[in-house]
TrEMBL record:
Keywords: ATP-binding, Kinase, Nucleotide biosynthesis, Nucleotide-binding, Transferase. This is ribose-phosphate diphosphokinase. GO terms for molecular function: ATP binding; kinase activity; magnesium ion binding; ribose phosphate diphosphokinase activity. It comes from Pseudaminobacter soli. Gene3D superfamilies: 3.40.50.2020. InterPro entries: Pribosyltran_N, PRTase-like, PRTase_dom, Rib-P_diPkinase. It catalyses: D-ribose 5-phosphate + ATP = 5-phospho-alpha-D-ribose 1-diphosphate + AMP + H(+).
Length: 326
């Protein structure tokens, strides 16, 4: 087995390697003056089961498109040089939010991304908490593996809730299934009974609307659950609504802390007590350093990905890893 991590994902890659009791294999990446680049493995991959990790979130000096292109080219060169199979480990999968047409002539970008991975010979794509699980499975024709961080979050949620009743809350109608799964995992792990709530959110041409609020949050520890936090507007809107209705404490739970432009308003708000994210993208750990007032807890996801790689390489059970029912 060979394990590589491309530039921008080396820290997470090293965490995955430690979980496997190994080290990252070396690779070369060169940028040329005209904006082109090349990347290649510095060890033989012939006949090897190759895993390439790259999180496709924008970072300073490297756009989403740059990272996607470099990952695809690296996978292709591994295949050209005899790798028996290449698995793309993509903790954050770019373009996953556009998985259907909502306006005339809309692109279905998730499907286009799948076609690109397949075209370069990717044997398997491993994603972490993709935006739409069903769309992810249906877009790809190669094998897909979907990981989630529910079991990582449960102990932290138990600690933050203390003795308060727990309410799991979706900031929009589209995320209710995600919230329900976390609720069920928490109840199974703790034996506690929790409640559920959600609020309406409609977005059209950048304008957010919707006033419906369902659930009793008064006196409770509320955990607003989403797959990602970018500007934080959706989370903040829900947090303020929960506070207005008497929530004792309000926390945000999201796998991907993208923390893009404008997120400062979320960090400065008193509506949230804590923000729980993983280190699936480098921006999460950087935000802890750059915004000490933000009250962010970053949970390591490298051990989960590492164990998934171990099981994939040895033909073990991913369902058991995730606690899925037979």
């Amino acid at each position: 087995m060979k394990l590589f991590a491309l530039k921008g994902s080396e820290i997470l890659g090293a965490s995955v390697a430690r979980a496997l009791w190994t080290e990252l294999d070396p690779c070369e990446e060169r940028d040329f003056e005209d904006g082109e680049h090349k990347a290649r493995p510095m060890v033989s991959v012939r006949g090897e089961d190759v895993y390439v990790l790259h999180s496709l979130a924008e970072s300073p000096g490297s756009s989403v498109n740059d990272k996607l292109c470099k990952l695809l080219f690296f996978i292709a060169t591994c295949r050209d040089n005899g790798a028996s199979r290449v698995t793309a480990l993509v903790p954050y999968l770019a373009y996953a939010r556009k998985d259907r047409q909502t306006k005339a002539r809309d692109p279905i970008t998730t499907r286009y991304i799948a076609q690109l991975f397949e075209a370069v010979g990717t044997g398997r794509v491993v994603g972490l908490e993709v935006h739409n699980f069903a769309a992810f499975q249906n877009a790809f024709r190669c094998e897909t593996v979907h990981l989630d961080a529910r079991r990582l979050f449960c102990p932290e949620i138990r600690s933050l809730a203390d003795s308060l009743p727990v309410v799991f809350f979706s900031p929009d109608g589209g995320g209710m299934k995600r919230v329900q799964l976390l609720k069920e995992a928490f109840e199974a792990d703790t034996g506690l009974t929790t409640s559920f709530g959600f609020m309406e959110k409609r977005r059209s041409r950048g304008v957010v609307s919707g006033d419906l609020f369902a659930g009793d949050v008064k006196g409770a520890a509320v955990f607003i659950v989403d797959d990602m936090i970018n500007t934080g507007g959706t989370i903040l809107r829900a947090a303020e609504a929960c506070r207005d209705r008497g929530a004792e404490s309000v926390h945000a739970v999201a796998t991907h802390g993208l923390f893009g432009a404008g997120v400062e308003q979320l960090f400065e708000s008193l509506a949230l007590d804590r923000i729980l994210v993983t280190d699936s993208v480098a921006a999460a750990s950087e935000a802890v350093m750059n915004f000490p007032q933000a009250r962010i807890d970053v949970l390591p996801v490298g051990p989960l990905i590492g164990e998934a790689v171990r099981r994939l390489h040895t033909h073990g059970s991913i369902g058991d890893l995730l606690g899925m029912e037979d």
